[in-house]
Amino acid sequence: MSPEEWTYLVVLLISIPIGFLFKKAGPGLKRWGAAAVGLGLTVFTCGPHTLHSLITMLGTWALIQAQPCSCHALALAWTFSYLLFFRALSLLGLPTPTPFTNAVQLLLTLKLVSLASDVQDLHLAQRKEMASGFSKAPTLGLLPHVPSLMETLSYSYCYVGIMTGPFFRYRTYLDWLEQPFPEALPSLRPLLCRAWPAPLFGLLFLLSSHLFPLEAVREDAFYARPLPTRLFYMIPVFFAFRMRFYVAWIAAECGCIAAGFGAYPVAAKARAGGGPTLQCPPPSSLEKAAALEYDYETIRNIDCYNTDFCMRVREGMRYWNMTVQWWLAQYIYKSAPASSYVLR
């Protein structure tokens, strides 16, 4: 394993005990404590390149404040334009960011585009309420208000999934901060149920990467081998690639579960990335909260079994990086012009 991979692993493992500490904390400590941890990890791993994420966040917040009725498209153009500039830094003769900066920037882009789209939906819902005589519209998934600069900052640098995902909406983040009875949420048992395959996947990754190292394909001797041998080599290399991501994403999900992040009643039928699809009233007492059955589907990022054993590529994509697949469907595909088949 490379030094970067060890750093990722340490960050993921540290997030699990940190999650247990934050689970029962109040909203203020959750918000600013999680942001402080995330910002500290970002500065530690990215150094001065942290400035890129800060510029992206400030630019998006300014667009949201200036044009709330059309900030989705503006934020999408701004964040991806800056991402293009970020990827071209070495070509422009500027200092090349660390791999950790790249990971933070990618996740932050997803979060900020999502935030801008949700603010735009809130603005449109408020306009509809005014046009219909202030009749109350359905509030499932809607934000209660436009986030302030500091609230946007805390969401952007929340340590949960800051480098590896899973992606989560600002609404999911708010629900975590405002959980009425966090002590009633199950953590240890769901965490153990989710974590048990990770050691096996880790061993398979180490074994396959040792027997079939990726570095071998960069040597001239590799291309002297017969074509069937070179084609076969793709199988164990891709196998090691999947095992590495399985371990990382399972560990990231365990960090969320430890904090009670993304926990919703099963009756809410939460979707990966999107959160609840059905309205469930919050429990009025600790006893009622403890009697509910919860799941962590909102932060589920990988279905290992279906990814490996599905019959079609389309199904495999659905079970791989699930929160990002939801982000693409919600904020890109649905927003594309209906007549533009190629764009969609």
UniProtKB/TrEMBL annotation:
Keywords: Acyltransferase, Endoplasmic reticulum, Membrane, Transferase, Transmembrane, Transmembrane helix
InterPro entries assigned: LPLAT_7/PORCN-like (IPR049941), MBOAT_fam (IPR004299)
Pathway the protein contributes to: Phospholipid metabolism; Lipid metabolism; phospholipid metabolism
Entry's localization field: Endoplasmic reticulum membrane
Catalytic activity: a 1-acyl-sn-glycero-3-phospho-(1D-myo-inositol) + (5Z,8Z,11Z,14Z)-eicosatetraenoyl-CoA = a 1-acyl-2-(5Z,8Z,11Z,14Z-eicosatetraenoyl)-sn-glycero-3-phospho-(1D-myo-inositol) + CoA; 1-octadecanoyl-sn-glycero-3-phospho-(1D-myo-inositol) + (5Z,8Z,11Z,14Z)-eicosatetraenoyl-CoA = 1-octadecanoyl-2-(5Z,8Z,11Z,14Z-eicosatetraenoyl)-sn-glycero-3-phospho-(1D-myo-inositol) + CoA; (5Z,8Z,11Z,14Z)-eicosatetraenoyl-CoA + 1-hexadecanoyl-sn-glycero-3-phosphocholine = 1-hexadecanoyl-2-(5Z,8Z,11Z,14Z-eicosatetraenoyl)-sn-glycero-3-phosphocholine + CoA; a 1-acyl-sn-glycero-3-phospho-(1D-myo-inositol) + an acyl-CoA = a 1,2-diacyl-sn-glycero-3-phospho-(1D-myo-inositol) + CoA
Transmembrane region(s): 6-22, 34-55, 61-85
GO terms for cellular component: endoplasmic reticulum membrane; mitochondria-associated endoplasmic reticulum membrane contact site
GO biological-process terms attached to the record: lipid modification; phosphatidylinositol biosynthetic process
GO terms, molecular function: lysophospholipid acyltransferase activity; O-acyltransferase activity
Keyword Acyltransferase: yes
Domain of life: Eukaryota
Membrane protein topology class: Multi-pass membrane protein
Protein family per UniProt: Belongs to the membrane-bound acyltransferase family.
Record's protein name: Leukocyte receptor cluster member 4
Originating species: Heterocephalus glaber
Gene: Mboat7
